[in-house]
Amino acid sequence: MGKKNINFLLIHEEKRALKIYITSFYITYVLSDFIYYFFYPKYILKTAIGYPNAIGYWGYLIFIGLIPIAYFLAKIDKLSAIKYMYLLSYIIFSIISDAVLFADNPSSFNSGNAVELILVLFSPIFINKQFYWVVTLGSILRYLLVGIMIKSGVVLIPIVLIIILSAISYILLRRFSSYIHALHNSHEDLRQMEKLAYIGQIAATISHEIKNPLASLKGFTQLQREKHPSDQHYYLIMEQEIVRINSIVNDLLILGKPKSTHFEKHNVRDILTYVLSITQLLALKKKIKLSSEMEEDLPLIECDENQLKQVFINLIKNGIDSMQDGGNLRILSKFCSNNQVSISFSDQGCGIDQSDLDNLFKPFYTTKEDGTGLGLIVTKKIIEDHQGFINVESELNIGTRIDIILPISQ
């Protein structure tokens, strides 16, 4: 989904929330005044009806006057300003109104207006913590100021009620935020899965057409190399590039394959020892020291040996590529609680910027000049197929640490 579409949806939902909020505000404001100043005095108390003074009618003039302003702000997409305008207008008017009405008779002060129920309890519908705190603190401050003006402690009751309502609202806000976050993550995961499945389908379709010519090309290249020994260097480069193309196709195929359910028990120590033996020469060429610390009594784990070899090779090569001026690459494996094994890869390379770190596992995203952007996404998929997880921590110009956690049994 594009950024414009997302912004449009956010604005649309903000408008819907505002309509509910403002409509509820007006309905509650009118009904509460009608019941308190007209219905209750006439039918319950049998006393005179109406506002005690003209300030009650000023409230309607003020809030009716806010309607065209709110309409104008909505037209220019200043939706956030509308809710703050209504909130602050109500708080300021309520402070003045209560100070005028109850200054001479504090004992007649009531427990607040039903409108505050709407302001506080409905604040979570905007999924905005800042607005929630403005509503909560503004409502409490309103009663504190009124209490100071009328010199009475009767405002403590509505303050306690506001705190209770705010606590309920905060719980709702947290639940709404958590729910939306979960929906967003589910949507992103689904989008990623669809993208990978599409890539896999394309790869499966064209892999046969690519691999057969590559096999023939590799065979003919080897024959030509034997015929022309003087050009060994060029033929070697050709063979390496053929292997590289084949590797890219294999990576694409892994992305599109369904999760494997066939695992065998293997020793992680043995797998790492093998991988270190075949990457040692590459590390030496770049003046990089490979060191490992592996617990002697690591348990056997259920895994696909070849896939884990590919994961470890990918991570070691990435670490080597990040250290252009040499350095140390350390591998640590140990047994963890909850029947898990941890394998960590720490390098002293250039590190990864935070913006790149956020996109690290996106298909075809790479910071290398000759990278395909498939290595880490393939690595992540293999780890997830093993019911494990991968974590990356990095700091620019200091290095990167990648932790892999794998369960002992599937």
From TrEMBL:
Pfam families xref list: HATPase_c, HisKA, MASE12
Q: What EC number(s) does its UniProt record assign?
A: 2.7.13.3
Q: Does the keyword Nucleotide-binding apply?
A: yes
Name all Histidine kinase domain ranges: 205-410
Q: Does the keyword Membrane apply?
A: yes
Q: Where are the transmembrane segments?
A: 20-40, 55-74, 86-103, 156-173
Q: Which GO terms describe its molecular function?
A: ATP binding; phosphorelay sensor kinase activity
Q: Which PROSITE patterns match?
A: HIS_KIN
- Write down the top EC class of this protein: transferase
Keywords of this protein's UniProt record, alphabetized? Answer: ATP-binding, Kinase, Membrane, Nucleotide-binding, Phosphoprotein, Transferase, Transmembrane, Transmembrane helix, Two-component regulatory system
Query: Cross-referenced InterPro entries, in alphabetical order?
Result: HATPase_C_sf, HATPase_dom, His_kinase_dom, HisK_dim/P_dom, HisK_dim/P_sf, MASE12, Sig_transdc_His_kin-like_C
Q: Which reaction does it catalyse?
A: ATP + protein L-histidine = ADP + protein N-phospho-L-histidine
Could you identify this protein by its name?
histidine kinase
Q: Which organism is it from?
A: Cytobacillus dafuensis (Bacillus dafuensis)
Q: What is the lineage of its organism?
A: Bacteria, Bacillati, Bacillota, Bacilli, Bacillales
